[in-house]
Design a protein that fits this description.
- By secondary structure, the protein is of the alpha+beta class.
- The chain has 5 helices and 6 strands.
- A hairpin with a 2-residue loop joins strand 2 and strand 3.
- Helix 3 crosses helix 4.
- It starts with a helix and ends in a 23-residue tail after the last helix.
Length: 190
C-alpha cells in the first residue's frame, strides 16, 4: 500500500512538472516573435468572417465636411475641439506628446473615410485590424488565432469575428479599468 502511495505521489509530481514545462513552452511559442510586426494582406484568408464596422459609423462620415482640398489638414497641428470633433479624444496615450502623431498617421490624407497603411495602401474601416496590426503585431497574431478579441457564432464555419475597433475606441484604444463586482453573498443557514 505504501509503495502504491509513493508511486501516485511520483506520478503526480511528474504531471505537475510536465504541465509547468508545457506552459512555459506554450508562452514562449506565443511570444517568440513579439518584436516582429504582423501583417494581413488583403488577399490573406482569415479564419472567420469579420463583422463590418462601416454600417455603425455611416452617420460620422468625415467627407461631409472634409470634401475639398482646403478642408484637409496639410500640416501637423492639434485637433480643433469644435462641436464636430469634441467626441474624439486624445490619440494613443503613449503617443499624446508625440508631435509627429496626428490624423494622417492612420487616415488617408485626402480621404478621411479610408485608412492608410505604412505601405501607402488605402483600406476600408472594415479592415482596421490591418492598420492596428502594423504596430501591435503580437496582438494581431493572437487575434487571428482567436486568442484575443471576440468571436461569435457556432462551431461550424459560421463564426464571425469582431475587429479591433469593436472593443477599442479607435482614437483612445486603451481599455478603461473596470471595477470588479462584489462576490455573491451566501444566505445564512438558520
Amino acid at each position: 500500500m505504501i509503495l502504491i502511495m509513493q508511486m501516485i505521489k511520483i506520478c503526480t509530481m511528474l504531471m505537475i512538472v510536465l504541465i509547468i514545462i508545457s506552459c512555459l513552452f506554450f508562452n514562449t511559442f506565443l511570444h517568440a516573435q513579439e518584436d516582429t510586426p504582423a501583417t494581413v494582406s488583403s488577399q490573406e484568408e482569415l479564419p472567420n468572417e469579420i463583422i463590418k464596422r462601416t454600417p455603425k459609423i455611416e452617420m460620422y462620415r468625415c467627407d461631409e465636411c472634409h470634401d475639398s482640398e482646403e478642408s484637409f489638414n496639410s500640416k501637423i497641428r492639434p485637433m480643433a475641439k469644435d462641436k464636430d470633433h469634441e467626441s474624439i479624444t486624445t490619440f494613443h496615450p503613449e503617443k499624446k506628446d508625440d508631435p509627429n502623431f496626428w490624423c494622417n498617421n492612420c487616415h488617408a490624407s485626402k480621404n478621411y473615410n479610408k485608412l492608410i497603411l505604412q505601405s501607402e495602401e488605402k483600406i476600408s474601416f472594415n479592415e482596421s485590424y490591418r492598420l492596428c496590426g502594423q504596430c501591435h503585431g503580437p496582438t494581431l497574431k493572437d487575434w487571428k488565432n482567436n486568442i484575443h478579441g471576440k468571436v461569435v457564432g457556432g462551431w461550424l464555419n459560421n463564426k464571425k469575428q469582431h475587429s479591433c475597433t469593436s472593443c477599442h475606441n479607435a482614437h483612445d484604444p486603451k481599455m478603461k479599468q473596470v471595477d470588479p463586482i462584489p462576490e455573491p453573498t451566501r444566505s445564512k443557514k438558520s
